[in-house]
Amino acid sequence: MRMRLNPFNTGNINVRSSGGGGVPGGKAGGLGCGTIVIAALGYFVFGLDPMQTAGMVEGVQQGQQQAGPANTDEQEVCTSSEYALEACNGLQSLNQTWAATFDAQGYGDQFQQPTLDLYGGGGVNTGCGAGNSSMGPFYCPADQTIYIDTSFYDTLERQLGAGGDFARYYVLAHEYGHHIQTITGISQQIRSAQQQNPSRRNQLQVLMELQADCYAGVWAGKNRNLIEPGDIEEGMNAAAAIGDDRLTGGRVSKENFTHGTSQQRSQALRLGLQGDDRACDRITNIG
Questions:
Q1: What is the DSSP letter of 249?
Q2: How many CB atoms lie within 10 A of CB 161?
Q3: What is the pLDDT of residues 141-154, one digit of tens each?
Q4: Alpha helices in 222-276 (DSSP H)
Q5: Cα 109 to chain center, whole Å?
Q6: What's the pTM?
């Protein structure tokens, strides 16, 4: 079954594609699965954000096609593949849900839509430095853009056992959660706390990632009328599949986790499904 989202309207979303190869086709190849699994370990487990990995990615990009001019025709980008269409529909729903949430709490003027960049075929230039498909999905606060090479979704299903449209929506909604953290100032608060207390850096990073998981659940919880049987299970499976403990198979100590265990990520998503974003705010209440 598929989550029943309304078709996107180009006036309601900011979307583009970058990268030399264009947007990957839905359920098609792309980068080798082994490469993306390594990237998933780097991004989802070790918390490698664009600000931290810009220099490293330059080395990874050698021999790969570099980013070309961005395609800003939303209609063309969104209809270029099944995954792209799905992502654009999801982005519109996320925008509407979070705009209404901000309005209801009296902060409507604070809300800003992010941009979704569905890039493919190698590297991408971001406000946080050089990005790359092998980093997995990521959010750049400097340009308030979510970057996704949709071939990652094939790896999510084939290599990590987390298939289904709701699993993919969960990934998008998690990155959107980082956007919410940016425009509310939570992200900066966490970064400041990490600088003041480096020994807690990983612990604080886990809290930020779990809150993004919770925010993903909030979006789903506020749209329960659109959810089909089996959707929630797909999301829970995806959250568990990318837990630090499962991805590393015991090769990394708990003190070095940066995104949370499978149980923690599933619990955070379940908390958000209650539809109350204020419950998610308590996750990063660091005093």
A1: T
A2: 13
A3: 999 999 998 888 88
A4: 231-241, 244-248, 262-272
A5: 24
A6: 0.82
